[in-house]
Amino acid sequence: MNLSFYIVDVFAETKYAGNQLAVFLGADALSAEKMQKIAREINFAESTFITKLDPENRAATIRIFTPDYEMKFAGHPIIGTSWVLMHKIFQNQPEKITVSVPIGEIPVHQSGDLIWLQAAQPEFLDIFSAQEFLSFSNLSSTDFEDSFPIQEVSTGSAFVIVPLKNKKALESLILDKNKMNEWLHSHCKTSHRALYFYCLEENNLSSRMLCIEDNQLKEDAATGSASTCLQAFLLKYDAPEIRIINHQGDFINRPSQIYFDGKRMDNDFDIKIGGKSQFIAKGEWEV
């Protein structure tokens, strides 16, 4: 059995930037175990498997896997898979499609060279003290932006949002893997455990996503799901409307740009993230 697959760079202004993604077609006959093995073999941050295509309604069902586990929702896989569907699979390059993932249907649309997704309503979980982070990082108490809380937020996948005062603190960040892992397991409400550090200086937004996978401390080049959580966080605590570019991946030589366009009316959040995708390769995978 052979599967066609595509490789794209997502949230990338140019090739060989952003976050890599492998998109596998015709995966309906594959078991979850087989998908997981393929995702581990290709070893990108995530790989997607299209299990159902509905060209008439311009819709698709996908499953998302990291090298270690399946995700219910993730931004860069949805954006990148949508680009493949719009530009390589569906006829006439539709500007609007629907992508179904385990948390539900995600509306996706293209405007210019940006593909946008609409995120689910956020859930705001526990708030933490900055003092807790001193035990597993090189941060000092003065590095935190104390006008905002530290809080776990979910729009399908949860992230602990950690505001820092400036880009210098973000760039010089060092974490102790074992102590961080203990803290995540002790404090996070969901099975998806990760930290999303950010700083907002004079309307310049920069971020870093760090997590533990395969007993390693890993940094992601561009994290769409974390960006939807961060956008919700900023809409709640900073301003009821936001249009800004989130810069991620700069410190691992995979510069990424994640576009924010959001509004909040009382407790109703309109969260959209967008990005460019760059086509890299197409091939056949022998299962």
From TrEMBL:
Gene3D superfamilies per record: Diaminopimelate Epimerase, Chain A, domain 1 (3.10.310.10)
Domain of life from the UniProt record: Bacteria
Catalytic residues, chain numbering: 46
GO molecular function: isomerase activity
GO cellular component: a single term: cytoplasm
UniProt-listed NCBIfam families: PhzF_family (TIGR00654)
Protein family per UniProt: Belongs to the PhzF family.
Record protein name field: PhzF family phenazine biosynthesis protein
Source taxonomy: Bacteria, Pseudomonadati, Bacteroidota, Flavobacteriia, Flavobacteriales
